[in-house]
Structure formats: structure tokens, C-alpha cells
Amino acid sequence: MPRSQAVAFALLACFVGAAPFFLFPVYVMKVLCFALYACAFNLLLGYAGLLSFGHAAYFGMGSYLSAHAAKVWGFTPELAILAGALTATGLGAAFGYLAIRRQGIYFAMITLALAQMVYFFCVQAPFTGGEDGIQAVPRGALFGLIDLVPDFTLYWVVAAVFLAGFLFLYRVVHSPFGQVLKAIRDNEPRAISLGYRSDDYKLLAFVLSAALAGVAGGTKAIVFQIATLTDVNWPMSGEAVLMTLLGGIGTMFGPVVGALIIVTLQAELAQFGAWVTVIQGVIFVVCVLAFRRGVIGELQRAIRRPL
Amino acid sequence: MSDLWYDLEPFLQQGTLGLVNGAFYAILSLGLAVIFGMLNVVNFAHGAQFMLGAFVAWMLLNWAGIGYWGALVLAPLIVGLIGVAIERTMIARLYKLDHLYGLLLTFGLALIIEGLVRNAFGSSGLPYRVPEAFRVPPVDLGYMLMPAYRFWIVVVSLIVCLGTWFAIEKTKLGSYLRAAVENPRLVQAFGINVPLMMTATYGAGVALAAFAGVLAAPVYSVNPAMGANFIIIVFAVVVIGGMGSILGSIVTGYILGVIEGFTRVYYPEASATVVFVIMAIVLLVRPTGLFGRA
Amino acid sequence: MTPLRHARAQAANTIRIGVLNDQSGLYRDLTGPGSTQAVRLAVQESGITTRGVNVEVAEADHQNKPDVGSTVVRQWLDRDGFDVIVDVPTSSVALAVNTLCRERNKVLLVSGAATSDLTGSACSPNTIHWTYDTWMLARGTGGAMVAAGGRTWFFITADYAFGHALERDVSNFVRAAGGEILGSVRTPFPGTTDFSSFLVQAQRSRAQVIGLANAGGDTINSIKQAAEFGITRRGQKLAGLLVFITDVHALGLQTAQGLVLTATFYWDLNDNTREFTRRLGRMPNDVRPSMVHAGCYSAVLHYLKAVEAMGVQAAKASGAAVVERMKAMETDDICFGKGTIRAGRPQDPSRLPVRGEVAAGIPLPVGLLQAPADHPGRSGLPAARRGRLPVGAHLTRVAEAAPAASALAPPREFRPFRQRSSRA
């Protein structure tokens, strides 16, 4: 890990460790869940150059399956999240197989189309509870031992899930696999001519991204004790794009900062009533026109070190 | 015989109604395709501009006493001018960048427009009546009764779509435009003002959206979210037709309207999803869309 | 809403009310800032603040997202010591908040949400469902329409839980009253703008009544297009199963003509409701108070009475106890008149809500089904009658209402109701 990133990671770890002592735990947990979701999305967009417009499908199905497993099947929370993650992985493998054959805007559109079909399934399937969603999901006890009902206890589990996911992604991006991925992003024909089977790499990246999005969705379901159609509808896919753009595409820490900003905006703007959409719109416009690299992207440029 | 006719009837009915919806899809996706084809920008604000067209029509009626026919001309002009301002101040800076940025910028614009309209007019919508000339009993087609205004929608949409197609594919101005897409610097060197042409094109695309908005005001609920409901479907239409293909988006618009109509009889729950199923299949089989060039 | 862990110190003698609803989306007009305005009016009129109790009112926008609503409510309840949550439209958010309030023994007064699950499977001793629910709407419009001669029905149903529940409930009432369901069609939700295909199917069924089991923009679109297709002119009746006053305004009077609907409150019903509208003052976007606004006012007023009766300390200690107390007391307010909160659904026909029909310029209460002798449609207070549900304390308010008439006219120009016969 280069020094700049080591320092940034230390800061992140400090923040995660200290946050629940001065910030409201549920709010921080929400930030962490969305940060993991955005990081997973960024693996595809930032490092493989694939803009998925259907990540809500994996996030939402992860959320639904975890909620269902915890509530109906009586799974412990870690198994419930695992069930959500596995579902998202399977879905990601199937959709990825279809989607990676297309590039650019066509890739975005095909992921959107597939995700809309998942949304349709969720509206129709009885187990999702339709518009009401799955409500009153029990938080349960970790490994059947540690009661997760108090926010403060649950927080450390969520923090652990997030940090594990983040480090895993760091490892993936900085592995030989990640290097090939970046090569494919920058010049696919060249990567192919060097003998890399680009489709295999892209598919694996897609599956990993979907799996982690599923983990994020499942964790969110346990934290908020609900899974609803909001999780699986297309604006949720859009949120991943926005968080990543705001924080900085293709940076390790960007999506985390982006998630922090978006979740805080949702909370802070709640008091501005109808202006909330206008303020959000202005932020995106300004961001695209003036800070195209995102917060971390600009910072990275300023200190000339990777973040 | 009568049984057969009875079975055939819903088919004809839904096909006809689907054509009307297809007319809206066609005009909207045409505007999107023009903007994408010429400017390489995915205009996410298209739905909001459609909605703005309907609201401007309402404002013209209630504040200036200008009725439907006046609005049909004035509203696209007004909204088109707003589009020109948007292009000059913002979109023009993004031409050299990835599609993503244009999409995000226009997404932000859509949020702003929708939010402002909601602040000014509330969320539940405004009334707008069918124009006087069409307040006649529905026309009997033999298999169904069709309101006169819906005929007008199909006719005017056909005229506008074919007119736009003709202007771009068959006129001199259109050929400049297409040339400017292929090689802007060369066209610029010939003394043609390419940035001005780009601005005008965006304005025209936006005006098409607003035109559809005025057309929709008497039949659909005029509310701030009316465009958001359309935008994703219209995107799908453009992709199926082949991004940037003018004729493709027109034809696909009508076809999808009709297919959607049939779905509403046989599997109504899926009628909003069928578009995406078709999009997925088309993209897998023919990645450039039905009418797109590779 | 700063997301800090610890809130400022709170006075023991303070009641905190959180109004959670949609301030920026689809339901802004019928809930939104108007609900907060109604709650503030209730606090002011209760006079409780002049007797040494502090009342703080906060509002927040849940943007129709359950996780946003859930975060806000957790902060309010766990950190800021709020005592009661009010309004909460959108059933997924309402159900989530319902669980939170129950777990923490606080009070939830639902006005904006429709789902009858709140008084059914998700029933809680900490929740009162104040204004309306799908069951009541079904009974109001469904039962009365059959009695008025609409025997055969066809449904246009929004394809989600709310639509399904509404269709199911209305079907039961229609069948029980001797009517017949000829068919139904499920419309994708959200994402349907054009209802003509479905309307033509409804027309083809030759049903006497077309039931619109949908809400908001869907309802407006279906009614607008039904008018366009001349469906009502050809003898079929439209029954709007959830139509708010804001929807009638959005349609315009000519288009809404002949529509039958049920509401629990109508601002222009009588002198009392007009007085309420006047006291409420100017509303955002100049909307007229909806039944949701009136419900927020009435619920908070009654809540504060209960708090005063049992003492602030006791009220803060247990939400369930406050709800118990509220049930024990008779409600009385300018919007709904006298009434009680009871458990168990109303089976007595006299508790039926009244449906109104939109007629040219004049709102008419028609088909008042077995109205009690003192039914106040023409004078005085509307009788608020509440039904209640098997467990816990839930309230289905039943009162008389008719839809908007003079959408553009100021309140004082309103003409009183007339009997249907006087129109012809």
C-alpha cells in the first residue's frame, strides 16, 4: 500500500472506530452499507470501465433474501447476509454472462433492462410483500450468541463487514487480476492481443461486484430491519453512479466519501422539503461542470498521490 | 364468424390504442435520438422537458389566455429556448467527454426542473381539457369507439416524425448536420458555424419533447412526475431502434406502442416490463439495435 | 437532523411531536407541509402550552424511502426523545415506523397511510390509524354503490399490495351486497400513464361500475381518459376507491363529473370544516386541507388532551398507556365532531362513510346509506364514528364528506349542499 493510501486507510479506520461515539450509530451504519455498495459498483466502473445501470438488482435481491432468511427461515444474521450475498452472486453471474458481451452505453442499457426484470419479479413475487416490503426483520444474535438488537453492538458487526469488504476490494484491485482489469479498461484490443481473455476477467469482476453489492444490501436489511422495493428500483442503481461520481471514479476512497455525502444530504435535506430535489440537482450539475474527478479525485490530483 | 370477430376485437382495439401510445414514444424517442445522434449526449432531462411543455401549455392558458393551438406552437418555442440556454451554458462543455457526464448533468437538470415545478405548482397536478374542436362524441370504428383527439395525436405525430426525418436525411441543412457529426472540424473549415448548429439541434430536440408534452396535456395527468414515468421507456425505445438512428426510433416507437397494447390484454401486469424484455433480446441478438449501423 | 450521537439536553416537561411525511414527492400536496401546519394548529388550540407544558413540533421528509424514514424516526425516538410520530404516508414507511414505535413504546398516529395491515397483521397497541384505510374505503364506496344499483363491477387495479387489498375488500362488500364481479385488470405500478387499453377492457365487460383500485396519478389518468372515451356518458359509473380532494382539483370539475368517491373529511362540508380551513390559514401551493391534514389535526389534539389528563411524566413513560387513555376518552374536534376510538372494525351500517359525487359546480352527498337520524350532512358537525380492530387500538374514522366543488373559488363563496333532486 503506498503511503498516501496507508494514511487514508488509517484515517478511515479511525473514523469507523470513533464514529459511533460521537455520531448516531444507525446513520453511520447506513453510510457504511452504502459505501460498500458504491465501492462494489466502483470496481466495475472505475477499474473495469463498465458502467452498470442495474446494480439495484444485486443490492435489492441481497436485501430481500437476507430479510427473508432472517425472518422466515430464522437464520442468524451472518448466515442471512451470506444468503443474500449468494443470491446476488448467482444473479450477477447470470446477468454478467449476458451483459459483458456488449460495450459502453449498450452495456449500461442491457444491465438496466435485466434489472428492470428483477424489479418486475420483486413486485410480483409473493415473498417480497409487494409495496409493503418485508417488515420487522429480526436483527437476531450473531452466531446465535451476541444479541444485535442494541445499535451499538450491531455497529461493530457492520463496521467489520464494511472494512472486510473494503480491504477485499483493495486486494482485488491491486492484484495481478486488477492490473489486467485496468489494462482491459484502458485498451481492450491490446489486452486481448497480449493473450488475456478479457471476457473472463470482466465476468469475474462483474460477479465480485454483484456479490459485494449483495452483502451491502443484506447488511442494510439487517440494520433497518426492512427490505422494500426502493432497494431494487432503478433510482437505487442511479445512486451508486452518483456516489461514485461525487467521490471520484476509479479511486479507492472516493465511493466511501460519495456515500457519506449522499447519505448526509438525505438526512440534512430532509428539512428543506420540496427543495431537496432542486438542491440535489444543483449539486450534480456543479459536480459535472466543475469537479468532474470527484472529491477524492481532485484531492488525489492535488497531492499527486493515489488514494 | 361472430365468435371469431369477438376474439379479434380486443386485438384490433389494443392495436389501435397502442398506436396512440406509440405516437408519444415516437416523438419523444425521436427527440432523444436527434440529440444523441448529433450531439452524442444522452439527454436524461428529456422527460422533464416533456413535462415542462405540458406545464407551459397550462400557464399559457391560465395566465395569458392562450389556448391549445397557440400552446402547440408557443410552448415548444419557449421550452426550446430554455434548451438553447442550457446547451450554451452547460452541455457545450461536455462534448468531448464520456457519455456518462452528459447523462449525469442532464439527470441533475431533470431533478432541478422537476423540483422547481413541484415547488411552484404542487405535486398533484393541474387540469387541462381536451381542446374545443375535439369535444365531439368518440368516432365509431366498428370495433371500438375512439375519441377524436386520439386520431389527431397519431396524425400530428406522423407528420412531425416524418418531417424531422426528412429535414435530417433529405435536406441540405440536414446533410451539413450529419457531416458535422462525422467531422466537425472539416465542416467548420467550410465556414459552417458548427457550435451554432449543435445549439439549434439541442433546442429542436427539446422543442420536440415539449411538443409531445402539449399533445399529452389533455389526455394525461399534468403533474411534475409525468415525464419521469416516460423517460426510461423512451430510452429503451431509442436503444432498440439503434442509438442515434432517426428512422429506427420512429418505427420502434410505434411498434413498441402496439406490442405494449397487446401485452395489456394477455398479460397486463407485464406491460411495463415487456419493453425491457425486448430491449434485452434485441441487444443480445443485434447489439446495434434494429436500425443502427455498426 | 444533524446525525450527532447525543442530542441537546431535554426538559422533562416537554412533549416532542415528529411529523414524518412526503415533502418533496408525489404525496406532498395531500400530506407534506400542510400536515405540519395542521399539527401546529392543534398544539396551539389545545392550549396546553399555556398550562406549563412545552410542545415541540419537528417535521421531516422521508422521500417515500423506508430507510430514510427509518433513520429519521430512530434518531427522533432513540436520541432526541420524541414521544409521538404523526402522519407517515406510504405504507412501506408506515409499517416500518409502526414496528419502531412499538418496540420503543412510543405513539404513532397514522393519518396519511392507507394500508389496513396497520390494524390487521401489523396491529400494535401503540398505533392509532386515524383517518382512513383500505377497508373503510372499500366499504364506503363498494357497499353504497351496490345499494344504489351498481350491481356488476369491473376493476382497474394498480398492481401492488395497496391495489390488491382494495380490490379484494371491495369485491367482498360487493358480493355480500348481492353484486357481481365481472373481471379485473392489473396495471403495472408505477409506470403506467395510458389507461385507455384497460378502460376499453372495462367497457367491453359491460359492467355497471368500473372500480378504480389505484391512487394519485394513476387515478387521475384513468378518470381523465375515461372522460375522454365517454365512458361515463355511456352509462358506466366510475368508482374512485381512493380519491383525495387534491386529485379532484387536478382533474378539474368537468372531467371529474359523475365520479363517486369516499372521504372522511371535506373542507367545505359545513361551517365547522370551513372554520377549520380558515384557522389553518394559507396552505403551501394553495391546496385545500385534505382528509389527511384534518386527521393530523384531530389526532394530535386528542393526543394532547390525553397527555394533559394523565400528566406529562406518565405520558412520556409509556406510549401504550397514552393510547389506552386516548381510547378511554371521547374525541371532539371541529373537523370530525364527537366520536370514540374503539377496537374492532365497524359492522354497524350507520358507521358507513358517505360517498360524494362530483357534479357540475355543486358537491352532492348522495346515497347516504342508512344514515343515523342525527347524521349531520346538512347541518352541524359531521358525526365521526370510528371503527376498531380486533387487537390494539386502531381507528377507522368514518364521517361524511363530498369532494371538491369550487376548485378555484375561495372558501366563502361556497354554496351549501343540495339534495340530489334539487339539481335537476
Structural class from helices and strands of chain A? mainly alpha
Structural class of the helices, strands and pairings of chain B?
Answer: mainly alpha
Count of β-strands of chain B? 2
Sheet with the most strands: spatial strand order of chain B: 1-2
Most extensive chain interface and residues per partner: B-C, 49 and 46 residues
Q: What percentage of amino acids of chain A are in beta strands?
A: under 5%
Task: Determine the fraction of residues in helical runs of chain A and give it as a percent range.
Answer: over 70%
Number of strands of chain A: 2
Average pLDDT rating of chain B = 87
Radius of gyration of chain A: 19 Å
Shape of chain B: globular
Distance, first to last CA of chain A: 10 Å
Strand order of the largest sheet of chain A: 1-2
* Overall average residue pLDDT of chain A: 89
Question: Span from first to last CA of chain B?
Answer: 48 Å
Order of helices and strands of chain B: HHHHEEHHHHHHH
Characteristic terms for this protein:
B: 294 residues, mainly alpha, two-stranded antiparallel sheet, 11 helices, 73% helix, 1% strand, C: 424 residues, alpha/beta, five-stranded parallel sheet
What does this molecule look like?
Chain A has 307 residues and is an all-alpha fold. Chain A has helices at 3-22, 25-48, 56-71, 77-99, 104-124, 151-173, 176-186, 188-193, 198-224, 234-247, 254-269, 275-290, 294-303, and strands at 141-142, 146-147. Helices cover 74% and strands 1% of the residues of chain A. The longest helix of chain A is centred in the C-terminal third of the chain and has 27 residues, at 198-224. The model of chain A has no long low-confidence stretch (mean pLDDT 89). Chain B is built from eleven helices and two strands, in the order H-H-H-H-E-E-H-H-H-H-H-H-H. In chain B, strands 1-2 form a two-stranded antiparallel sheet. In chain B, a hairpin with a 4-residue loop joins strand 1 (139-140) and strand 2. The mean pLDDT of chain B is 87. Chain C is an alpha/beta fold. Chain C is 37% helix and 17% strand. In chain C, strand 6 (152-158), helix 5 and strand 7 (180-187) form a beta-alpha-beta unit. In chain C, helix 1 (32-46) packs parallel to helix 11, helix 2 packs parallel to helix 3 (91-103) and helix 11 crosses helix 13 (319-328). The longest helix of chain C has 20 residues, at 291-310. Mean pLDDT of chain C is 74; it is low at 344-356 and 359-424. The interface between A and C is large, with 41 and 44 residues.
